[in-house]
UniProtKB/TrEMBL annotation:
Organism: Paracraurococcus ruber
Subcellular location: Cell inner membrane; Cell membrane
PANTHER family reported in the protein's UniProt record: GLUTAMINE TRANSPORT SYSTEM PERMEASE PROTEIN GLNP, MEMBRANE COMPONENT OF AMINO ACID ABC TRANSPORTER
Recorded superkingdom: Bacteria
One Pfam match: BPD_transp_1
UniProt similarity note: Belongs to the binding-protein-dependent transport system permease family. HisMQ subfamily.
Coiled coil stretches, renumbered: none
Role this protein plays: Part of the binding-protein-dependent transport system for glutamine; probably responsible for the translocation of the substrate across the membrane.
Domain ABC transmembrane type-1 residue range list: 27-215
SUPFAM superfamilies associated with the record: MetI-like
TM segment ranges: 31-51, 63-86, 93-112, 196-215
Residues of the signal peptide: none
Record has Transport as a keyword: yes
Name assigned to this protein: Polar amino acid ABC transporter permease
Length: 226
């Protein structure tokens, strides 16, 4: 294969112009998915992290089992189960609904562990000091403990969010027309790898600023410990 053949097979501008409309539609779907699943994961993780502060065995042990289960099951398997398995129980779920449920269960468990570590990193005296000012336990957790916990684990939260956005590409297995799905559709029509390469470049341009932000936060956190 000559260099010109390589460029034609992977970086054809004509193919890119033809494929761009559906790639743009796929990018919009990817952004929509991210806007749905990230807040759902953070919400689920926050609930799990708050429940982890309860020391009663009837709460603690089922919570540990829940988190371990959904961290251990591969997200792709979980997604296929929700989309293709629930209909056998009489529950019809759309592609977007299946992705939302699957990501809520999986990413919520990961966010929960990150936030739990953040809560545990806050000195216990902070809760006692907040309660001494007249705040209830819930108010102290919301206004004093959680903000500090989030700040302590912010790089981990951003890193997890980065992984979640990249993980939205598995939505293509349930025919969710996100970026990878549309790129594969364009590739099957054009018989050219340019749409896949374009999708990779789009992912890079979308996520690279977040990667750089994460690196700066990690360096700042390391410098603060010295």
């Amino acid at each position: 294969m000559t260099f010109d053949d390589f460029l034609l097979a992977f970086f054809s501008l004509d193919i890119l112009r033809q494929a761009w409309p559906i790639l743009w539609m796929g990018l919009q779907q990817t952004l929509l998915l991210s806007a749905v699943v990230v807040p759902l994961g953070v919400l689920g993780g926050t609930v799990l992290a708050l429940l982890s502060t309860v020391r009663h065995p009837l709460v603690r042990w089922p919570l540990m089992a829940w988190v371990d289960l959904f961290r251990a099951v591969p997200p792709l398997v979980l997604l296929v189960f929700v989309y293709a398995g629930l209909p056998f129980a009489g529950l019809e779920v759309s592609a977007l609904g299946a992705v939302a449920i699957g990501f809520f269960l999986n990413t919520g468990a990961y966010y929960g562990e990150v936030l739990r570590a953040g809560i545990e990193s806050v000195p216990r005296g902070q809760m006692e000091a907040a309660r001494s000012t007249g705040l209830t336990r819930g108010q102290a957790m919301a206004w004093v403990i959680l903000p500090q916990a989030v700040r302590n684990v912010l790089p981990d939260l951003i890193s997890n969010t980065l992984e979640v956005v990249k993980l939205t590409s598995i939505a293509s297995v349930v025919a969710m027309p996100e970026l990878l799905f549309q790129a594969r559709q364009a590739q099957s029509v054009t018989y050219n790898a340019t749409p896949i390469m374009a999708a990779a470049v789009i992912y890079f341009l979308l996520l690279w600023p977040v990667v750089r932000l994460l690196s700066r936060l990690e360096n700042r956190q390391i410098a603060g410990r010295r």
